[in-house]
Amino acid sequence: MKIGIIGVGLIGGSFARDLKRVLPDAEIFGMDNNPDHLKTALELGIIDSAGKGSSLAEAEIVFLAIPVDAAVRELPSLLNTVGDETLVIDAGSTKSLICAVVSNHPKRRNFMACHPIAGTEFSGPRAALEGLYEGKTNIICEVEKTAFKLQEKALDLFSRIGMRIRYMNPEAHDKHIAYVSHLSHISSFMLGKTVIEKEKNERDIFDMAGSGFESTVRLAKSSPAMWTPIFEQNRENVLETLREYIQNLEAFRKKLADDDMEGIYREMEDTNKIREILKGIPLNKKEA
Amino acid sequence: MKIGIIGVGLIGGSFARDLKRVLPDAEIFGMDNNPDHLKTALELGIIDSAGKGSSLAEAEIVFLAIPVDAAVRELPSLLNTVGDETLVIDAGSTKSLICAVVSNHPKRRNFMACHPIAGTEFSGPRAALEGLYEGKTNIICEVEKTAFKLQEKALDLFSRIGMRIRYMNPEAHDKHIAYVSHLSHISSFMLGKTVIEKEKNERDIFDMAGSGFESTVRLAKSSPAMWTPIFEQNRENVLETLREYIQNLEAFRKKLADDDMEGIYREMEDTNKIREILKGIPLNKKEA
Each residue of A6-17: pLDDT tens digit? Predict the structure, then answer.
């Protein structure tokens, strides 16, 4: 079985590593517009060969793991190029636009729109981890638009890799993911920015930082090339979550300014229920 | 050697566990206004006995690990009660007020104002971890006000436990810690609140949360009883950090609303230097 990985970074590379484990006979070729990444992926044994345009027609499965602006641009012509029986899976963090650009494509039934909720703050093939997807949620959008046989093939693969499946429409996906993923990244980036700005004059400040700071600011290490197009494609939802987040921060600040310490206590106590909620989130052992 | 731990929760309990390791002959008594915590600490072997008022006069070292409002209230009378040679160490996350309330105390020289930068989002004696303080920074304020022999004793103990020492004045401590600790907690609490508010109607949302959300929201599990008085005592600094943080979030939101994606990219790229900065932060293996 020939499998193509387009984009051999953290997401594509980790998927390739899991494929090698569950399908030891698969022949995995990689494609990447960064020749260094392709070379590294070959050296690390993540892929077996570098693919050519003609490889796509022969592939049984193609996994598209590139930034969401590039994915939206490339997917229609990719579908033109692949074989009639090829399954094309994407892994983008936004789903409305990608589903829209192929909605009338003659090969729409070859495509399955996915968002595996997995990753780390690192990027590139060296960041690829075997087992990254184990126990993680994979959100599939508009499943009914994928050919039934290709659905079966994809679900069998996801099940072997150990992913949990959830079905959602693209609009609901984009709205909810803005809260539990996109907002976290912005809050983390802006926290990092606020502290770095202060640090310009006060270099000692980071010597005082503990694991709490490290944890809240971890996502500020993430790739701008990956995240800028995500925020662009999900702008309306992200603007709304940011409005609500800023409003909550303003309200907290006002309570503190007014010396309403009972109010401050209650805000935190109410939010403590996140403890119970978080117990339900599957975590990769390597990241926990 | 008799050692007293006042407050046998996460901070006091972890300190007791490290003491047992580096001073196996020490007799550790605990005091806590929560009888359940005292009972649990005894059962877990964190302390050897429950202390009485009279125990304090005989103690060589007393470690005060209670919420900062209680610490400010209790420290003067604690100093009245301890022996002439007793070393009293606190572990509060704010340092200005506690230093101020004992500045003219006849036993000021028995006291060392400390802030070990260590902890987790959990609390109580069951959260106490051996090795929590290993490799962590301990900030000592107004060291010159502690008797020289007691300084020596404290530094020897901290060195055996494996802590790095930094000296600072209380005002600088409170200003800087607002950025690298207090602000992180508020950003995390408000992130949790924003998502929980949305979740009222959309229970599915947490099924979509990954380890990135878990990481940024981890501190929202923290104890309101511990954090409310910290924010109260460090109000001016926390208000200032919140003002700057909200301003940065507003600016990011405006860039996104204006479709200034180059600006968004640059904001994230500039903040990526947090990668280098974080490499310098010592992390507890158990939390990393």
Answer: 999 999 999 999
